[in-house]
Amino acid sequence: TLMPTSAFVANVECFLADALIALGQPARAAPLLDDGDDQRLPSFLRAKRLLGRVRAARAAARPAPELIERGLALAQGDAGLPVKMVLLLEQALLQAPEAALALCDQVLADAERTDAPLHRLLALARRIEPLLQGGDAAAAAAVAQRVQADAAQLRGPGLYPPELQLLAGRALAADARHDAARAALTDALAWIDARVAGVPPGFRDSFLH
């Protein structure tokens, strides 16, 4: 019998929390995850649980930089690198454009070095907003096109296709590529429409909002 503190159960709880966040119910996700102090779990898994809390806090519009720092301290070595890369991208959201781009570039380098296409896509997507904030719409649009091309081929944890398309659409619109921007928005809405029927009734309103 698995104990509640086992690594297997702890990892399953991370996936369940991610699902609740995607369904728009971060308040139900956070209680599933402890504060990362359970010494019986591997450090990388404790960091992963903190990452879940970071995502839940962001979804609830309550950024948690202290949780990011604690997660980064735990996400060491090869086992912790996948979590570290995502934590750095969460940290980038809280930085000024230049610092945010530097963090994204760090993750891109690690993703290329370790052949991690999912993390590369996440880092590319995270570059769009600071590029727009810095006034470089052309560069943001070029990144957006790479994001759309990669997103068409990849699926995995942390990827939410409508969010990627909306980011791409903003960049394309800023670069006056209005037809492409409208197409990105149409794709985002089509993805949601195709899946909402399969969402349990108790989650549909939060999923759509």
Quick summary:
It is built from eleven helices and no strands.
Which segments are poorly predicted (pLDDT under 50) over 5 or more consecutive residues? none
Question: What's the count of strands?
Answer: 0
Given the helix and strand composition, which structural class is it? Answer: mainly alpha
Q: How helical, in percent, are the residues? A: over 70%
Gross geometry? globular
What would your notes on this structure say?
The chain is globular and about 55 Å long. The protein contains 11 helices and no strands. The longest helix has 19 residues. Helix 5 packs antiparallel against helix 6. Helix content is 73%, strand content 0%. By secondary structure, it is mainly α.
Descriptive keywords:
209 residues; mainly alpha; globular
Topology:
Layout: H1 7-22, H2 26-29, H3 43-59, H4 65-74, H5 77-92, H6 97-113, H7 117-133, H8 137-151, H9 161-174, H10 178-196, H11 201-208
Helix pairs in contact: 1-3, 3-4, 3-5, 4-5, 5-6, 5-7, 6-7, 7-8, 7-9, 8-9, 9-10
